[in-house]
């Protein structure tokens, strides 16, 4: 039988499963069998105490009803679906008001080959290297297109995970469609040289990784990918700050998996779904320990900035 909470998702009539419930059931036994980083232990502890009285609360008194209303505090853990989304929505709305009004933005996604994932996972400082290289690639491409040095506006967001929960570090960039030169904004137009930026991205990333990963890997990467590394240029042009806030809200600080994607849980395994690049629904089943490992591996180290400007 499938383990089930009494709470039901009325919208689709399926049982409701939560990441928090899975961790409550298995976190202690997981720690006995696996090593966990300090940040992982800290964020899990925050999530498990979310809205618990030990975190404190607001208490309101209603004179008409003669009753106290207690509202417990959230946790703001990166693993918590409700707290993470609320924090992200507020942040995105604030940031959208700080961007340049009237300037069109584009969404670029910088990916790296699978052979490099293990190096980034073992040395998490390389995540900043990826983010810096993505900006350098945009700056060189835009400057080359207009034959003058341009300083583009970029919001770079690191995503360490894919939809299937595998460790797949990549960078989402919200980019101004042009850049500043001598205090004047110069538009590059809506066409971005797709083939060129692949090679520019490869060059800047592999150059930045020299001395940090084996040189033979870098040389092999240049030979294996003669046309550069994969990069997606989303076709939509973002005209309004409201739309920009919606974009940012989707890609900043949301948990690796939301509760709504969990389809089954029987105390031994967890089944969830995701949509691949073709928008087809795929299902994946992990043992509970595999699921916990997959979720917590994406937590950044303390003080690491997942968003850079």
Chain-wise SSE layout:
Layout: E1 8-9, E2 14-15, H1 19-33, H2 38-48, E3 57-62, E4 67-72, H3 81-96, E5 105-111, H4 117-122, H5 126-146, E6 154-161, E7 167-176, E8 178-181, E9 184-187, H6 194-209, H7 215-224, E10 231-233, H8 241-251, E11 262-265, E12 269-275, E13 281-287, H9 288-296, E14 307-308
Antiparallel strand pairs: 1-2, 3-4, 5-7, 5-10, 6-7, 6-14, 8-9, 11-12, 12-13
Helix pairs in contact: 3-8, 5-6
Describe the 3D structure.
By secondary structure, this protein is α+β, with helices and mostly antiparallel strands. Helix content is 37%, strand content 23%. It contains nine helices and 14 strands. It has a five-stranded antiparallel sheet, with helices on both faces. Strand 12 and strand 13 form a beta hairpin. Helix 3 packs antiparallel against helix 8 (241-251) and helix 5 (126-146) packs across helix 6. It is globular. The N and C termini lie far apart (49 Å). The relative contact order is 0.18.
